[in-house]
Design brief:
Layout lengths: L8 E2 L3 E3 L13 E7 L8 E9 L3 E9 L5 E11 L13 E5 L10 E9 L9 E9 L11 H4 L16 H21 L9 E2 L2 E2 L8
């Protein structure tokens, strides 16, 4: 997850419900959350992150400005699954990220983000997403965001004694590759829990093995 975020305003949740909201007692299955940037500002999005709260599916629409300054809505993510089964707890409170590479369109020159949340199951009283953050691209040519501490590495000509030390550019490049690999592994890591190997509340040394 990128550590850089852009300032934005998360507006109150809007309910989408068929019929009269005052007389219809059925629970709404669709909520909409708008996230806006300061007036006059746009962003090229690298990642959208949030914490799930019992939302089964999310769609994302972006309000983008074209070369002439006109703003148009476009769908960049459609019915992305957050809970493998809407009726069970799995994935219901996970931290989630939507990356630029997953989006159907280029998320550039964005002025507003709209999250459309769906939960078809009646097992949950409420659902939403929390802690919404928008992470910008640091530059247009990079596929991955690089943390600030990497970009602030001391320049070679500012070091007093470089004898016996590895080349800073080589070290920086290696660290960036390791960081990118860590991001991929974290994205693809399994959420399955590890079972316990206790018997009657105790652990038997015979059940342990070394590999």
């Amino acid at each position: 997850m990128s550590v850089n975020t852009v300032p934005c305003t998360v507006k109150p949740t809007v309910t989408l419900q068929i019929g009269d909201a005052e007389t219809d007692s059925s629970r709404p299955g669709v909520y909409v959350i708008d996230v806006t940037l300061p007036i006059g500002q746009t962003v090229n999005i690298q990642e959208i992150s949030f914490k799930n709260y019992y939302t089964a599916y999310v769609s994302v629409r972006l309000l983008r400005r074209d070369g002439e300054g006109a703003a148009r809505w476009a769908t960049c993510l459609r019915n992305h699954c957050l809970m493998p089964s809407p009726h069970t707890e799995e994935g219901s409170q996970d931290y989630c990220s939507v990356y630029r590479q997953q989006m159907l369109i280029e998320p550039d020159n964005v002025t507003s983000v709209r999250l459309i949340l769906r939960q078809p199951s009646s097992a949950w009283l409420n659902f939403s997403v929390e802690d919404i953050k928008i992470h910008p691209c640091l530059n247009e040519d990079s596929e991955w965001d690089i943390p600030d501490w990497l970009s602030d590495l001391t320049q070679v000509d500012q070091l007093c004694d470089l004898q016996g030390l590895p080349d800073p550019q080589t070290v920086s490049s290696s660290i960036q590759q390791m960081w990118a690999l860590t991001e991929v592994m974290q994205t693809n890591q399994t959420t399955a829990s590890i079972g316990r190997f206790d018997v009657d509340g105790c652990y038997d040394i015979n059940l342990l093995s070394f590999t």
